[in-house]
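Reopening: structure tokens for the KG4 complex, inputs below.
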Amino acid sequence: MSLLTLGIESSCDETSAAVVADGRVVLSDVIASSLEFHKQYGGVVPEIASRKHAEVIDSVIDKAMKDAGVTPADIDCVGVTRGPGLIGALLVGVSAAKTLAYVWDRPLVPVHHLEGHISANYIESPELEPPFTCLVVSGGHSHIVRVPEYGKFRILGRTRDDAAGEAFDKIARALGLGYPGGPVIDREAKLGDPHAIRFPETHFPDSLDFSFSGIKTAVLNYLNNTRARGGEVNISDVCASFQFAVVDVLSENLIAAAEQTGDKKIALAGGVAANSALREAVERKANKKGLKVYRPSPILCTDNAAMIASAAFYAAKNGRYAGSDLNAVANWSLEDL
Ligand code: KG4
Ligand code: ZN
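Re-run output (same inputs, fresh job):
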């Protein structure tokens, strides 16, 4: 008999609930985004995000249950993103999950948001099992993570300043392309020449860490200097060249990490994993090294609750449960799981 997990995600601007069977089969995945209310501010406004979560969370959960064709009696456990994320936003999901777990008398499982992103790979690749090495790149985090077994994580590299998604968002803003920046830069870059402008890449010797502040400054300087000279900025070329440099570092470090761990399986996760150039570069470099690449489809790369329900299934197997005193946490290391 299948074990059904209800997952709840509210760490940023997506309110999401999903029902997943055995950590792998999605029966429903409802995502309500408050993005349109943040766009005019050029980024997510925490206060607005919390308010929108509170407005829609009940109906999102109801719809997830209906879409899956299940009743509370069918649900075996409730998983929720406990952190990291916007504290007010997280609290809405955690409160809802605690209430349901109490009323339905089901176990409550705290999930790390990045563990969720990594678990999105289990959904679309039923054959994927740990150990593997994963590049987790989102709006708030850029990590290279080794997954030695289900629900356990070791960080091999991390950003020393901006997250990769944050760099995409900042450059898009400087180019007047709106928020979020990743998808629009991805599209614009297809029309440009990735070798038109040479932006600097940061590689640290003997380290798998990242830094994106140098390239961000280089792009901003390029834009200011070109405009000051009265020159024309070719937006597509800037997008393609910026994206090329970021993707190059991300993919190089991921392949280097796999060489270190000896894993033959590598995975991509997080919003930036939806990037088409990153997917191509990783595939190309991995093929040369005989590595197998796993990556969720774009809709499972960005925030959703199916990935949280999947992660909760494996966390529950490890006996990771919480009581009704569970609290949301804005900062939480994957290595503390
Ligand atoms: O994982 P996610 O949905 O939320 C966080 O946990 O942060 O990631 C959102 C980030 C944003 O910075 C967005 O610009 C970026 O992912 N993103 C992309 C693409 N789609 C979303 N970045 C590059 N290329 C994309 N196609
Ligand atoms: Zn995320």
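Residues 12, 138-140, 165, 168-169, 180-183, 186, 270-272, 274-275, 302-303 surround KG4 (ligand 1) (CB under 6 Å). DSSP finds eleven helices and ten strands in the chain. Marking as resolved unless the reporter disagrees.
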